[in-house]
């Protein structure tokens, strides 16, 4: 079975003890066990954050969803699952989606006050298994009708990989769902896409009432993990993932154009700055920036720590966050870079700006804050 190497912070963070983890019980099923209410939920593993109006909503371990306008003043919401939640996306003032492990997709239609399960791992497995069987028939027909030996060999390689995934799915029927979603994005209330481990990609056009498997939309035969989705100023959708996976869609994720990646290690995140430039980043401190998605320039970060998340400050600067509390503040025009480290030295999974000089950080140590020094007081590396 392939190794499990989920996006950035997740792999190492799963081993961290959560302050209010439920006591082991017989036949405990985290998929359909409500999240425990914890006095220190803000100090447990937090993996995703989104701004919702004047508030922030963060998600994390054991089904935790907390809402706050100040990290010291937060409220935990009731959630119908206790699996690790990985990502959150606010569509509008009312509609919010959350992705998680074991094939979980949650939705709120009242601005995050209440949450409902819209998909679970059993349903995901059924969807993917049906798609795999249909794809097997398509490939076998294509091999039989291949125009030459080279084309047949390519198709046979794809079929061999498909059999690997079919075998994995059959094992899952016995052991139960385990596949995580790692990110999701809704273009509006109706059209959305969710992605995750082993090349999983689902798409909906009816607000999540039904989902279709879209794994074949990108050239990802071996099933590299899809770690992050980001939408650009012109509405283009960028996805990044394992082994330098990089693709772009102009039709809301229905089809994709594969892009030549400047890096063949794992990419954990991407963002567009105020200049319209695409930034991609990930393993071992690697950062690249492009004005068109084709030609990339590497940014010298002088760090080997994984970079897992990023945001754009109000003044247009790029902030990237990663392992060991690493924070990079980069001028998008000059590429001048300033490096800081949070006092916790904790792996970071997300960053947002709370005020002009205050950042909210999330990660293994829960909700954290960081005060940015005045620009005139900062020194480069």
TrEMBL record:
Which InterPro entries does its entry note? Answer: PSII_CF48-like_dom, Sialidase_sf, WD40/YVTN_repeat-like_dom_sf
Q: What Gene3D superfamilies does the annotation carry? A: YVTN repeat-like/Quinoprotein amine dehydrogenase (2.130.10.10)
Query: What's one Pfam family here?
Result: PSII_BNR
GO biological processes: photosynthesis
Q: Where is the Photosynthesis system II assembly factor Ycf48/Hcf136-like domain?
A: 71-119, 176-259
Q: Where, if anywhere, are coiled coils annotated?
A: 129-156
Answer yes or no on keyword Nuclease.
no
SUPFAM superfamilies noted in UniProt:
Sialidases
Question: Could you state one GO cellular component term attached to this entry?
Answer: photosystem II
Per UniProt, the keywords (alphabetical) are: Coiled coil, Photosynthesis, Photosystem II, Signal
Task: Determine the domain of life of the protein's source.
Answer: Bacteria
User: What does UniProt give as the signal peptide span?
Assistant: 1-21
> What is this protein's record name?
Photosynthesis system II assembly factor Ycf48/Hcf136-like domain-containing protein
What organism does this protein naturally occur in? Aliidiomarina haloalkalitolerans
């Amino acid at each position: 079975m392939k190794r499990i190497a989920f996006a950035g912070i997740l792999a190492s963070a799963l081993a961290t003890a959560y302050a209010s983890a439920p006591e082991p019980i017989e036949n405990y099923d985290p998929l359909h066990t409500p999240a425990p209410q914890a006095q220190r939920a803000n100090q447990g593993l937090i993996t995703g954050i989104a701004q919702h109006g004047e508030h922030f909503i963060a998600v994390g371990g054991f089904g935790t969803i907390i809402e706050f306008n100040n990290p010291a003043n937060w409220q935990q919401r009731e959630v119908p699952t206790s699996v690790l939640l990985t990502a959150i996306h606010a569509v509008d003032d009312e509609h919010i989606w959350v992705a998680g492990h074991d094939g979980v997709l949650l939705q709120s239609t009242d601005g995050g006050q209440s949450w409902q399960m819209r998909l679970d791992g059993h349903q995901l497995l059924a969807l993917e298994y049906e798609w795999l069987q249909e794809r097997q028939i398509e490939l076998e027909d294509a091999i039989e009708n291949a125009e030459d030996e080279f084309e047949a060999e390519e198709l046979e390689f794809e079929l061999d990989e498909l059999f690997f995934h079919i075998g994995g799915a059959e094992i899952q029927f016995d052991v139960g769902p385990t596949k995580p979603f790692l990110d999701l994005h809704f273009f509006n209330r109706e059209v959305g896409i969710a992605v995750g481990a082993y090349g999983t990609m689902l798409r909906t056009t009816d607000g999540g009432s039904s989902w279709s498997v879209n794994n074949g939309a990108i050239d990802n035969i071996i099933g590299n993990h899809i770690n992050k989705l980001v939408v650009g100023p012109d509405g283009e959708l960028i996805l990044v993932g394992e082994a330098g996976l990089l693709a772009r869609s102009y039709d809301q994720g229905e089809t994709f154009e594969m892009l030549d990646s400047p890096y063949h290690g794992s990419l954990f995140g991407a963002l567009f700055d105020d200049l319209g430039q695409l930034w991609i980043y990930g393993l071992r401190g690697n950062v690249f920036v492009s004005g068109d998605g084709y030609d990339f320039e590497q940014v010298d970060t002088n760090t080997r720590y994984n970079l897992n998340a990023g945001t754009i400050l109000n003044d247009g600067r790029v902030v990237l966050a990663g392992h060991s509390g690493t924070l990079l503040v980069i001028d998008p025009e000059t590429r001048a870079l300033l490096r800081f480290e949070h006092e916790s030295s904790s792996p970071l999974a997300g960053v947002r700006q709370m005020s002009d000089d205050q950042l909210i950080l999330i990660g293994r140590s829960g909700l954290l804050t960081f005060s940015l020094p005045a620009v005139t007081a900062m020194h480069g590396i």
